[in-house]
Design a protein that fits this description.
There is one protein chain. By secondary structure, the chain is mostly helical. Helix content is 58%, strand content 0%. It contains 6 helices and no strands. The chain is elongated, with a radius of gyration of 32 Å.
């Protein structure tokens, strides 16, 4: 029986060395709390420092990534591309496109412009304040303006 226990112990030791389990201190990522730590925390002896969250300030809107960026860069990023009547093909070999085709093409052009504009505003908000959602950033900017 002693021979088998020694073999198993040797295998366990080899596995522990291979996978780094033997003799290691607990990692900082997986902090183990003992009963004493929990009791001390409940007694109020140990207080965790709260992390301060960054806030959107008016100075952020005036800075280089602020509202001036919209004025300077949006003209290059977002452009309305109207309907090119020459590229529209009419059905049945007619030379002129129908009103319905023109209406649909104008609607598609407006939708494309709106999508590009909203995307540019999303990028602006993400660059301005990366840790906040787009809708929250817009609401915060509205609150700052009033």
């Amino acid at each position: 029986l002693d021979g088998l226990d020694a073999e198993e112990a040797e295998q366990e030791r080899l596995l522990s060395e291979q996978f780094g389990e033997a003799g290691e201190a607990p990692s900082e990522k997986r902090k183990t709390t003992t009963d004493q730590d929990i009791a001390a925390e409940l007694a109020g002896e140990v207080r965790k420092a709260k992390k301060s969250r960054p806030t959107l300030q008016p100075a952020d809107l005036v800075g280089p990534n602020g509202l001036n960026r919209i004025k300077n860069e949006f003209n290059d990023q977002v452009k309305y591309r109207g309907v090119d009547r020459a590229k529209l093909k009419a059905k049945g070999g007619k030379k002129k496109p129908t009103r319905e085709q023109l209406k649909r093409a104008e609607l598609n052009a407006a939708a494309s412009y709106s999508r590009d504009l909203l995307g540019a505003y999303r990028n602006f908000c993400r660059d301005l304040f990366p840790s906040m959602a787009f809708e929250d950033t817009v609401a915060r900017i509205e609150n700052l303006s009033s």
